[in-house]
Structure formats: structure tokens, C-alpha cells
């Protein structure tokens, strides 16, 4: 195993993650304020409240953290990387709101609170997800995120591809099919990896790539960071599958054991619980190796990978 994989998390890492989460929360609060923005006519109160319910007050904000730290590794700091990360987070929050809908996973609990369709209603939840998604692209396209229009266009293009047909939305379609909604489907290991790379991994990987884009990474640095992001996405999902089997609803803040109950194919099913844990360690090893060319300056990103595999919720 890669020597770095066994290194424990530093005591400073949770503080660093928490500090960035607080900055992200403050930015999301501003983006979801009551005052209409230039070009808007009005912000309907119920829709805004539902959007705030779905986006504020919870979550580790790992995706903005990855964007900010990837940009910082390349010497780019300030509000731009945080805004790019917030754009990815808004897209992620939209996906959770829609994923929880009765037509999808039909969940009642998210981050320890009622899901948006339970706290409000199904129609409001659909609109809240729609509006969070469009706000994500608005943030990416705003000159406040980056003064260079070409950089903003690349951020928008990358987010669209990670979120759409060949990324998250396509992965969700594969996930619904894997539940047997459209006839019996028995995914093999390769099929499960493809599904997970699209549904979960694409947005996580793009969070890292967004930092590389706004940090003006050269081709080699961008390729290394993308490899790190893809490895992290795969490790994140297998860790999630393990938690679904081993953790509790109280610890997760969402229903535990639902994937198994729904008959979803996971790598835990294909490899067994212990085999899945070994695979998580292998993926962590490969993810850390992708950062070898950066030296000690990438230690925070290494710790983010270790945290992703070792987390308990």
C-alpha cells in the first residue's frame, strides 16, 4: 500500500474543513437572500424557503473544500474559488432534493431533517431543485467568480457535462434501472463502477477540476488533479456503501440500509463487506498517488481523501 494511505488525519484537518464549510454557508446565505438580484423580478417566499431548506444548515461542504484547496495548490485564493465551489455545492444540493422525491428514492430524512418534499410538498421540491440547479450555473457564469470569460465558460461547460446525460443525471437513470423498475437488471462489477462514477463521482471529480480551471492549471497538473478527483469519487461511493450497511440512521442523518432493501447493486454486494473495505483502501492508495507530483503542498487534499474513506457519516 502507498505509504501515505496509512497516515492518520491531522488534528488541524477538521478545523480547516469546518472553517471552509462556514465560509460556504455564509456565501450560500447571501446567494439565497430575499432581495431580488439584478435581472430578477421577484423571489417567491415559499420557493426561496424551500431552496434554503435544501441548501443551508447541513453537510460537510466537501465539494467546495476540494475546489478551494485545488485552486490554492495552484496559487489561486480569494472569493473566486469559493464561488466556484459554491456553484458545485448548489448543483449537489439540487440533486439531493430531487433524489429524495417519491418518484426517485422516496426519502423522508436528509441531514437529520425532513426532506424538502416532506417539509413543503412535492411540487415545491421540484421547483426548488430546478431553481438551485439554475442558480449553480448563474454563479459559475457570474464575473464575480472570475474576470476571464473563457474561464467562466469552461466552468459552466464542465459543470454541465458532470451533471447531465453523461454524468450525474445519466447515473441516476442507471440507478433507477438497477432497481429493476424497467425490467430485471443484474449489474456486474464493471456496470456498478460505471453507474457510481456517473451518479456520484462526476460531480466530486468536477469540484476538483473546477479548482484546477480557476487556478489556471497546466495540462499535467490538471490531468493529475482530475485523476485524484475521479479516484476520490470512487472511494467516496464505496465508503458510502459500507456506511449504508454498517451505520445507523441517527449517525447518517438519513435512512440507513435503504440500498440493500431496494435491491441496488453495490460493490459491497459484489465484493463482500471485507472485500469492499480492501477496495476502498486500494482506491485511496491510487487517489493519493495521483498527487505525488505536487509534494507537501498537496497534503490538505491528501487528508481530504483519507477523510472521505474514514468518515462515519
Automatic annotation (TrEMBL):
InterPro entries: Isoprenoid_synthase_dom_sf, Polyprenyl_synt, Polyprenyl_synt_CS, Prenyl_diphosphate_synthase. One of its GO terms (molecular function) is prenyltransferase activity. The keyword Transferase applies. PROSITE patterns: POLYPRENYL_SYNTHASE_1, POLYPRENYL_SYNTHASE_2. It comes from the Bacteria. It holds the Pfam family polyprenyl_synt. Its cofactor is Mg(2+). GO terms for cellular component: cytoplasm. GO terms for biological process: terpenoid biosynthetic process. Keywords: Isoprene biosynthesis, Magnesium, Metal-binding, Transferase. Belongs to the FPP/GGPP synthase family. This is Probable farnesyl diphosphate synthase.
Amino acid at each position: 500500500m502507498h505509504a501515505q494511505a496509512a497516515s492518520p488525519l491531522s488534528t488541524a484537518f477538521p478545523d480547516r474543513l469546518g472553517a471552509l464549510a462556514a465560509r460556504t454557508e455564509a456565501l450560500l446565505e447571501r446567494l439565497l437572500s430575499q432581495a431580488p438580484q439584478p435581472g430578477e423580478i421577484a423571489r417567491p417566499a415559499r420557493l426561496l424557503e424551500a431552496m434554503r431548506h435544501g441548501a443551508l444548515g447541513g453537510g460537510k461542504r466537501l465539494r467546495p473544500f476540494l475546489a478551494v484547496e485545488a485552486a490554492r495548490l495552484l496559487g489561486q485564493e480569494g472569493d473566486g474559488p469559493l464561488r466556484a465551489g459554491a456553484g458545485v455545492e448548489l448543483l449537489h444540493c439540487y440533486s439531493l432534493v430531487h433524489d429524495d422525491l417519491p418518484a426517485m428514492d422516496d426519502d423522508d430524512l436528509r441531514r437529520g431533517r425532513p426532506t424538502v418534499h416532506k417539509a413543503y410538498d412535492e411540487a415545491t421540491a421540484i421547483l426548488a431543485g430546478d431553481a438551485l440547479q439554475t442558480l449553480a450555473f448563474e454563479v459559475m457564469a457570474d464575473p464575480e467568480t472570475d474576470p476571464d470569460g473563457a474561464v467562466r465558460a469552461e466552468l459552466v461547460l464542465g459543470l454541465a457535462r458532470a451533471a447531465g446525460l453523461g454524468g450525474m443525471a445519466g447515473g441516476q437513470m442507471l440507478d433507477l434501472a438497477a432497481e429493476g423498475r424497467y425490467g430485471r437488471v443484474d449489474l456486474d462489477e464493471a456496470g456498478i463502477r460505471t453507474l457510481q462514477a456517473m451518479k456520484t463521482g462526476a460531480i466530486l471529480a468536477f469540484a476538483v477540476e473546477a479548482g484546477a480551471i480557476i487556478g489556471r492549471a497546466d495540462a499535467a497538473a490538471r490531468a493529475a488533479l482530475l485523476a485524484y478527483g475521479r479516484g476520490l469519487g470512487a472511494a467516496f461511493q464505496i465508503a458510502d456503501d459500507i456506511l449504508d450497511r454498517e451505520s445507523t440512521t441517527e449517525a447518517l442523518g438519513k435512512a440507513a440500509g435503504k440500498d440493500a432493501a431496494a435491491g441496488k447493486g453495490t460493490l459491497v454486494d459484489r465484493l463482500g463487506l471485507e472485500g469492499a473495505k480492501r477496495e476502498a483502501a486500494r482506491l485511496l492508495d491510487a487517489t493519493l498517488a495521483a498527487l505525488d507530483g505536487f509534494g507537501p503542498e498537496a497534503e490538505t487534499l491528501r487528508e481530504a481523501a483519507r477523510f472521505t474513506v474514514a468518515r462515519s457519516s
